[in-house]
Amino acid sequence: MSAKAPAKEALPGTAAGEAPSLLPGLLVCLAITAAAVAVQAVEEHLTGHPYVEALVVAILAGIALRTVWVPGERYRAGIAFSAKQVLEVAVTLLGTSISLGAIVASGPALLIGIVGTVILAITASYGICRALGLPARMAILVASGNAICGNSAIAAVAPVIGADSKDVAASIAFTAVLGVLMVLGLPLFLPLAGLSEHQYGVLAGLTVYAVPQVLAATVPISLLATQVGTLVKLVRVLMLGPVVVAFALIAPHLPPEGATGKAGPRRLGFFKLVPWFILGFLALATLRSLGLVPEAVVQPVTRLAGLLTVVSMAALGLGVDVRVLARVGARVTLAVTGSLLVLLAISLVLIRGLGLG
Questions:
Q1: How far apart are CA 26 and CA 77, in angstroms?
Q2: What's the pLDDT tens digit per position in 140-159?
Q3: Residue range(s) defining the domain that contains residue 273
Q4: 68 pLDDT higher than 80
Q5: What is the pTM of this model?
Q6: Where does it localize (predicted)?
Q7: How confident is the model at residue 120 (pLDDT cuts 50, 70, 90)?
Q8: Is residue 193 in some structural domain?
Q9: Does residue 285 lie within any of the structural domains?
Q10: I need a labelling partner for 242 at 20 to 30 A (CA). Which of 100, 191, 283, 310 fits?
């Protein structure tokens, strides 16, 4: 192997003189991001809600571009940097959007129920995916996205478990489709299941993937449903930190891609088991909870995190061969659909069992 190859892959330690080599790939990802943000802006103007978020548009646009254009060598370093390092910074910054105060005030029963729902949903989703023959890492991605916060959870878990970009793209693509269907179909549960507005808010918070989608699903019902749904959703998002740490501990024991046997345990340093960006996420969430992060800073930082995530999703899309995605499409669709139905069932049992609302 030539001496040049390792230097290209060691992006975190790229020397200052090599920084311009990242520019071509970064510019491509930024161009896709700009287009995706524009599409979301048009959606919001026409409908009031981003039913298909910029993050989803970016990865689909990246995949579409990849089908007609294979990035050359000069673009690859920037695309790889966007897919990994940019994403890690985005996950870290998301910590500023989490405050523990409102979570504690919601009461122990609801908190325990949400935590239990996430754990059961991850376990059940993983089992469904594996039963359908999906690889272990892809099963984890689908399970995490289904149980916590859809695309953001998939994006956060992916680098921890070393998931392949095509698996990330497939998981996000099909989760995104069902996320939109949930927004459109969930209000039907209000009359069908005989739910109160409070109960409907809990159900939306437990099952809808993204915070904007929770708003889209609850605003037409009532202000109470929106308030409850948003709170429950934020508690659910808070589970992302512990879940990612847990998968970081599990990752060394996962079988290699394509292998049937288990991989032997590997000795890893602390920062391999608990990645720096998860520590950063938890640190910022703690600072926010202690009131050390000014409120005026929270919204701009959260928006920046969102934009960086869109950039990284554009990069992931550019790394996907749509022919590979098509081969796994049917199984992933069944896995995500089955996982979502299980999540709905668990959530309804929780609402009835705890007598919420």
A1: 9
A2: 999 998 898 887 788 888 88
A3: 98-165+174-309+323-354
A4: yes
A5: 0.63
A6: Cell membrane
A7: very high
A8: yes
A9: yes
A10: 310
Residue 135's contacts (CB-CB under 8 Å, 6 or more residues apart) are 167, 257, 258
Higher-confidence position of 320 and 37: 37
CB 26, CB 81: distance < 8 Å: yes
The per-residue pLDDT for 15 is 42
Distances (CA, A) of 211 to 142, 150, 204, 286: 18, 10, 10, 21
List the one residue out of 58, 73, 72, 277 whose CA is nearest residue 158: 277
Indicate the pLDDT class of residue 126, thresholds 50, 70 and 90: very high
Mean pLDDT for the chain overall = 79
Three-state secondary structure readout of the chain: CCCHHHHHHCHHHCCHHHHHHHHHHHHHHHHHHHHHHHHHHHHHHHHCCCCCCHHHHHHHHHHHHHHHCCCCHHHHHHHHHHHHHHHHHHHHHHHHHCCHHHHHHCCHHHHHHHHHHHHHHHHHHHHHHHHCCCCHHHHHHHHHHHHHHCHHHHHHHHHHHCCCHHHHHHHHHHHHHHHHHHHHHHHHHHHHCCCCHHHHHHHHHHHCCCHHHHHHHHCCCCHHHHHHHHHHHHHHHHCHHHHHHHHHHHHHHCCCCCCCCCCCCCCCCHHHHCCHHHHHHHHHHHHHHCCCCCHHHHHHHHHHHHHHHHHHHHHHHHCCCHHHHHHHHHHHHHHHHHHHHHHHHHHHHHHHHHCCC
Within a domain: 14: no
Which tokens go with 49? 């809600």
Tell me the mean pLDDT in the region 216-225.
Answer: 77
